[in-house]
């Protein structure tokens, strides 16, 4: 089919053609970026925490002075151990999907000239690594002598177990065991590497840093208290969390039970990603609404043009054009409009992503989203115009020419 007559006909309807093309361009820009944001959100929600979430719960208490920490720890640990089904209780500062507690920048040299980025420090007492259920892939677990008391934030010299992702970031291609890093004046030496260990709030500093974390063996006491990791059979964990407030009120009536941050780790994960799920639902709604509006716009314009061109259709049919010729004409015409809108939409999509990157630290849009969006819009456009095109092809020459 000749394209030139179609382009000539479109020049006679510049405004309508431009409006539909702009609508398709907007749909292309939103489709690309919304799908990319949805994929990022879903990727965040699927992050592997590295801990045995179904078997763990966090119990948090407040309302006491740090000097009371050792006494509070002893009473609460004893009380929680008394709940039926509890396998272990240990002191920890936080867990994946819990509160952001100890996050700090590190350096790969003592002088602080080679920066290593910002990481999360998990600090826990004896038994914590066993309770967390992490998978050790290199090195050894902390031994009894590695659990040191804190001096403000950390011990002066600490052994540490880091995530595989952090090891690859700090020393790509090298053996991380025995390597050292510093946080201000505090010194750390790597003795082990675990397969996964998500930071407390994964995704808060970008997807690439979601597992930049280290576990530091620490002796509970004045500077490590009030947060307790409970391990039990997954079937017992919900009951233990429900029973914990009453038990703590009995053994430590002078503290305040933190209901907001005390929960099973699986529930902490569910609650943490609640906004992500809401965002995914909203973006899906926006995509569906925009696709529906775009399709209705194409249907409306094509139906209007079919009605307006009944005379021309009748003449073409009278001089030998088949129904297939008429159908192909409208499909080709719509394809050209959609293609123009897609080309403009690619520019809009890249510009919108640039705004998101600079203003909201969203990753750059992968280019393969563009052809995928183009195929979707081409398919939508052809399906939307199909019904009006079939009606045009069904116009009998005699009926059409009666209006001449």
TrEMBL record:
Tell me if Transmembrane helix is a UniProt keyword of this record.
Answer: yes
A molecular function (GO) term = transmembrane transporter activity
Kindly list the places in or outside the cell where this protein is found, as annotated in its UniProt entry: Cell membrane
InterPro entries xref list: ABC3_permease_C, Macrolide_Exporter_MacB
| Pfam families (UniProt xref) | FtsX (PF02687)
Note the topology in the membrane: Multi-pass membrane protein
Keyword Transmembrane appears in the UniProt entry: yes
What is the residue range of the signal peptide feature? none
Give me the segments passing through the membrane. Answer: 278-306, 335-356, 368-387
* GO CC term (a single one): plasma membrane
ABC3 transporter permease C-terminal domain residues: 286-396
Keywords recorded for this protein, A-Z: Cell membrane, Membrane, Transmembrane, Transmembrane helix
- The protein's predominant localisation is membrane
Question: What family does the entry list?
Answer: Belongs to the ABC-4 integral membrane protein family.
Indicate what this protein is called per its UniProt record: FtsX-like permease family protein
Natural source organism: Dyella dinghuensis
């Amino acid at each position: 089919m000749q394209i030139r007559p179609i382009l000539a006909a479109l020049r006679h309807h510049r405004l309508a053609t431009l409006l539909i093309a702009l609508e398709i361009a907007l749909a292309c820009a939103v489709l690309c970026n919304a799908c990319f944001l949805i994929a990022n959100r879903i990727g965040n929600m699927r992050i592997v925490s590295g801990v045995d979430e179904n078997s763990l719960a966090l119990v948090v208490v407040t309302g006491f002075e740090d000097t009371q920490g050792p006494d509070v720890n002893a009473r609460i640990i004893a009380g929680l151990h008394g709940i039926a089904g509890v396998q272990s209780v240990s002191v920890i500062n936080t867990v994946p999907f819990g509160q952001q507690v100890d996050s700090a920048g590190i350096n790969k040299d003592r002088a602080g000239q080679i920066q290593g980025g910002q990481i999360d420090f998990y600090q826990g007492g004896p038994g914590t690594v066993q309770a967390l259920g992490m998978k050790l892939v290199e090195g050894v677990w902390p031994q009894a002598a590695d659990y040191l008391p804190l001096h403000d934030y950390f011990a002066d010299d600490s052994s540490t177990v880091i995530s595989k992702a952090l090891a690859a970031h700090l020393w790509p291609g090298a053996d991380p065991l025995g390597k050292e890093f510093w946080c201000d004046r505090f010194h750390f030496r790597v003795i082990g590497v675990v397969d996964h260990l998500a930071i407390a709030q994964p995704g808060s500093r970008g997807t690439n840093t979601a597992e930049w974390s280290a576990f530091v063996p620490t002796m509970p006491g004045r500077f490590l208290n009030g947060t307790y990791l409970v391990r039990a059979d997954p079937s017992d964990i919900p009951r233990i969390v429900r029973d914990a407030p009453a038990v703590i009120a009995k053994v430590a009536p002078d503290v305040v039970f933190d209901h907001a941050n005390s929960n099973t780790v699986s529930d902490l994960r569910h609650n943490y990603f609640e906004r992500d799920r809401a965002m995914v639902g909203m973006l899906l709604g926006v995509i569906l609404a925009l696709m529906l509006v775009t399709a209705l716009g194409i249907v409306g314009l094509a139906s209007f043009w079919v009605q307006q061109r009944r005379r021309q259709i009748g003449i073409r049919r009278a001089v030998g054009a088949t129904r297939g010729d008429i159908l192909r004409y409208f499909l080709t015409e719509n394809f050209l409009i959609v293609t123009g809108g897609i080309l403009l939409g690619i520019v809009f999509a890249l510009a919108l992503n640039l705004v998101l990157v600079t203003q909201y630290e969203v990753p750059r849009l992968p280019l393969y989203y563009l052809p995928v969006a183009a195929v979707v819009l081409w398919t939508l456009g052809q399906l939307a115009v199909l019904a009006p095109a079939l009606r045009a092809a069904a116009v009998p020459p005699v009926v059409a020419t009666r209006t001449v």
